[in-house]
Write a structure and sequence with these properties.
The structure is a single chain. By secondary structure, this protein is α/β, with parallel strands linked by helices. 39% of the residues lie in helices and 17% in strands. The strands form two sheets. It has a ten-stranded mixed sheet with strand order 5-4-1-6-7-12-11-8-9-10, sandwiched between helices. The chain has a two-stranded antiparallel ribbon with strand order 2-3. Helix 8 runs antiparallel to helix 9. The radius of gyration is 20 Å and the shape is globular. The N and C termini lie far apart (43 Å).
Length: 318
């Protein structure tokens, strides 16, 4: 039977989002791809430093270690005398999807191996847009530093965000929790209400949300990821958990429609922050997420000073 990624949480990630290749990228921008390839080959045995999304990937992959340990000790899952060569039931798959060339890809895989990241799959396209491989991967998330690839992925229906390489890296204070924070409108929810706000102002927005309080907001681009994370959370153990937060500029009374929408989806978030226009950065600093997703560049630029952040280029603001 052929291998399948169905039912797994699949994260596709560019090499610059996973590792710090900013120095090498500067060589590419100042010269050409041949000079970049030569530099990566020279540094083949030098592990790259962790990048902005490193913590997120490392913690998600930790769910596999828990699942593999269970499968190797549960007599109902395997014969104790014949453990499988490739352990089954790994709930998370991370795939490198990169504009790098295949030669540079060798350093990416070696760096992953150095840090104990079990990443086995990757596509390296040498400058061509790699997002077209997201559908065959059944990807639940795509993280890239290339805005054009992110826009194309979102248009294809895949949750995607542009990683800000200069974002602060994640705290190591919560080693057994994957912490992810989401904006609401145009991220988890559609931009329906955001369009009212942009066109008519705050009072009209509040009135619109009160009138439609019992009507769930349409799905936003990141709802599928939230669903996948909830499934992963439900299968979690004391060794690894998922903790999610809604961090939104909404305030009462517009908060209620957001909460009721999540209830309608049968999805629970662990924390909800209705900030009424307050800057999100310091609140996110206290939550300490491994990643934060927002559709507005102003919010991302502020948040990136405190936590790993990604721009979701969707909705009327984009």
């Amino acid at each position: 039977m052929p291998m399948t990624l169905d039912g797994k949480l699949v994260v596709a990630i560019s090499s610059r989002a996973l590792f710090d290749f900013e120095e090498e990228n500067l060589v590419f921008e100042q010269s050409d791809d041949r000079a970049y390839m030569d530099l990566q080959l020279q540094r083949l045995d030098l592990p790259a430093k962790p990048g902005v999304a490193f913590s997120l990937v490392k913690k998600l992959l930790a769910f596999n270690h828990v699942a593999v340990s269970a499968s190797l000790t549960d007599p109902l899952l395997v014969e104790p005398t014949e453990p499988p060569i490739t352990p089954p039931n790994r709930p998370v798959e991370v795939v490198i999807l990169s504009r790098n060339d295949p030669v540079s890809g060798m350093r990416v895989f070696r760096s992953a191996q150095h840090y104990g990241l079990t990443i086995e799959r990757g596509s390296f396209t040498r400058g061509q847009a790699p997002w077209r491989y997201l559908k065959p991967l059944h990807a639940n998330l795509f993280l890239s530093t290339h805005l054009s690839d992110v826009r194309a992925a979102l248009a294809a229906g895949v949750p995607a965000a542009q990683v800000y390489p200069n974002s602060v890296h994640a705290s190591d204070a919560h080693p057994s929790e994957v912490r992810i924070a989401f904006d609401g409108d145009a991220v988890l929810f559609s931009d329906e209400a955001e369009r009212v706000y942009q066109a008519q102002g705050l009072q009209a927005f509040q009135r619109h949300e009160l009138e439609k309080v019992g009507q769930p907001l349409p799905d936003g681009p990141f709802k599928p990821l939230l669903v996948a994370l909830q499934n992963l959370q439900r299968s979690g153990t004391p060794q690894m958990r998922v903790r999610t937060a809604l961090v939104t500029a909404r305030s009462a009374p517009a908060h209620e429609r957001a909460i009721r929408t999540l209830m309608n989806w049968n999805i629970e978030v662990d924390e909800a922050m209705f900030l009424g226009g307050l800057a999100k950065g310091e609140f996110l600093r206290e939550f300490e997420p491994d990643f934060f997703f927002d559709d507005q560049t102003g919010h991302i630029e502020s948040a990136a000073q405190h936590v790993p952040s990604g721009h979701v280029a969707s909705g009327v603001a984009n």
